[in-house]
Amino acid sequence: MSKPRFKWVIEISVDPRLVADGFDMQSYCGNNGNALLPSCYGGEITAHIIEAPDADRVAKEQGYQDHAQRIMWETKRRAKKSLDPLPVVSPFA
Questions:
Q1: What secondary structure letter does DSSP report for 89?
Q2: Which of 12, 31, 67, 75 has the fewest other C-beta atoms within 10 Å?
């Protein structure tokens, strides 16, 4: 028996100028939408998470006890990389 899949619902907004330049989501991603979006600059494409799986479930799948342990690990990792680490902001909070 396989595990249930993880599901995120994401709203994507596209600047009209990008569409005027020829961008079309259906042509780019195909009918199944499995392609990643292109890199865009200046807010041409923005995405907002509408719905996400439980943060603890995601963390456990990644090998952590819970979401709090994952955030602690990520904070320590960033602190080692930089003297001025960026704050960890979770989209699941």
A1: -
A2: 31
Structure tokens at 59: 């963390």
Half-sphere exposure of 31 (CA within 13 A, CB side): 0
- Contact in structure between 11 and 48 (CB atoms under 8 Å): yes
Residue 88 near residue 71, CB atoms below 8 Å: yes
What is the C-alpha radius of gyration for the chain, rounded to an integer number of angstroms? 17
C-beta separation of 92 from 59 below 8 A: no
pLDDT by residue (tens digit) across 71-82?
888 888 777 776
Three-state secondary structure call for residue 85: coil
